[in-house]
Here is the input.
Amino acid sequence: MADIELRELRLFLVLAEELHFGRTAERLGLTTSRASQSLRALERKLGGRRLFDRTSRVVTLTAAGHALHDELAPIVTGLDNTLTRARTRAAGPGAIRLGVLNAASGTAVLNEAVTHFEAANEGASVRLVATPLNDRLGPLRRREVDLSVTRLPLDQPDIVIGPLLSQADPRVVMVAIDHPLAARPQVSVEDFADYPVRKPSDVPELAEASLPSHTPTGRPIVASDAEVNDVSELLLLIAQGRLIHSTVAPFAEHFRHPAIAIVPVSDLPPSSTALAWLKGYEHPARDAFVAVVEQVVARQPAQ
Here is the structure.
């Protein structure tokens, strides 16, 4: 039997998760054709049995694929964890990559934790990595970051929610300074039905918390069809009056813009932020940093 390469097994596991060759190729930094070729090579090395049924529109695991996945996934995860521990023992804590959408939420806790962690571990560092506006959990799942600052509520089966960094962050809406809502002392969710709004789609429970699908009286809240790729585009569209943006006060204050007004929302509950990480992915240095964060949080006055 020809030697099977670890990269082929990783591709199989990612494809079993995504069930889409394009997304699998993107996650692994391959072309779609290369991903397909690698799968065919793995199937040949395993005796020619098909692991996936493929049509032009649908990819599904075969019975053989399901069996392989169930046996292989814990083995590869265990190998990854063993290698991570070995690298940590050899090199010390090293760099921890912390994904953030903005540097406002939980800043006091994070700054203190980073200072203590780096002082207690020679050569250790915590590096901030910008999280994409429309893919806030993607870097965690692709292991491009070890931890991420996330807004709550969050209920994803592969993500662990850790210590809270901030609590009771007020809800606000960002609008152009000449917008009809700009001069109001506060607004209601009912007002959102009258204007195009940006509704994030990457994490449904977060989107619904900041912007319900309907107002209290049952009117639909319609999402804007404007394409928003990053924060700069978002601010420009708000300033131009092309949409309004429901968010939290720390985000609005961090990205304060002279052409944008920030108005409190009276009937949305406040929000919190927390650290999060990928379930089943061992990382001793990450866990050590989380422990420091928990100690800092425990010393914070009750909110």
